[in-house]
Amino acid sequence: MLGGLNQANTPEGLKLLLISVVATTISILVHEFGHALVGRRLGGGHASITLWAFGGLAYNQGGRFTKSGHFWRIAAGPGAGFAFFILICLLLSLAFSPRDGWALPANLLFSGGFKVSPQAAEFFLGRYPILHLLYSLLWINFWWGMVNLLPVIPLDGGRIAELFIRPQKRVHQVAIVAAGGMAIYAAVGMQSIYTTLLFGYLAYRNYQSLKEYHWQ
Ligand SMILES: [Zn+2]
Q1: CA atoms of 19 and 137, how far apart (whole Å)
Q2: Residue 133's closest CA among 4, 13, 18, 1?
Q3: What is the pLDDT of residues 157-208, one digit of tens each?
Q4: What is the mean pLDDT of residues 5-22?
Q5: Longest CA span, the chain
Q6: CA angle at 137 for the pair 11 and 68, rounded to the nearest 5°
Q7: Which of 25, 65, 96, 136 makes an SS bond possible with 100, Cβ 3.0 to 4.6 Å?
Q8: Coil/strand/helix, residue 56
Q9: DSSP strand pairing (46-52 vs 55-61)
Q10: CA-CA distance, 129 to 186, in Å (whole number)?
Q11: Binning pLDDT at 50, 70 and 90, where does residue 62 land?
């Protein structure tokens, strides 16, 4: 769905969808390995990763964490994604020219007219699948990484907020405002139905959690 299932009605569209699926799977694994490996280093325990419909979960069973250990374990997921993003930029600058290391990603992410080297332009001309793979990897690791840091439970940003904000009720209030704001921005600014639905749902879920406090 996220990779453009609705456009996969031609062989070319199907190919691009499959590339998106590969890029998403790689990116989720990088993210979860960030959580699991830093968790194993800081708190020990048995690390495991579960992949499911819309992402993954990393566990550190039997791990013992300090508060800062918890923080770094959570931050390591988006951190691994951002590191992966930087690695791709470095590889691009080595493969073509230093300028391509930022100009190519900037063009793909912000659709700006940044000038790339003639070698890079020539290489990617007619190699659209490779460009699509690159675009998917950069997009997922940059934008999803940023969005995942919003203070909305159960996103990583929400789990970080949970470590610092007391009482727990306040965490859900913050999440409702952040998720509601993001849903409105997604509807009006981005015109993305999927992002609107996702954040609308997250705002609703946090509202439900908040309501439970009133019954106690
Ligand atoms: Zn995560």
Answers
A1: 10
A2: 18
A3: 999 999 999 898 999 999 999 999 999 999 999 888 889 999 999 999 999 9
A4: 88
A5: 66
A6: 150
A7: 96
A8: strand
A9: antiparallel
A10: 28
A11: confident
pLDDT at 5 over 80: no
Place of tokens 């996702």: 198
Residue that the structure tokens 């590191």 belong to? 83
Mean pLDDT over 98-124 rounds to 89
- Cis-peptide into 78, omega within 30 deg: no
Distance 95 CA to ligand 1 centre (A): 30
Q: In the predicted model, is pLDDT for residue 216 greater than 60?
A: no
- By C-alpha distance, which of 116, 185, 179, 109 is closest to 142? 109
Query: 156 alpha carbon to ligand 1 midpoint, in Å?
Result: 5
Determine the distance separating the centroid of ligand 1 and the alpha carbon of 36, expressed in angstroms: 10
Q: What gap in Å lies between CA 203 and CA 194, rounded to an integer?
A: 14
Ligand 1 centroid to Cα of residue 215, in Å, is 31
Cβ-count burial of 182 within 10 angstroms (0-12 exposed, 13-18 middle, 19+ buried)? buried
Separation of 81 CA from ligand 1 center, angstroms?
10
d(CA 58, CA 48): 6
- Which pTM does this prediction carry? 0.89
H or E segment to which residue 48 belongs: strand 46-52
Residue type present at position 136: S
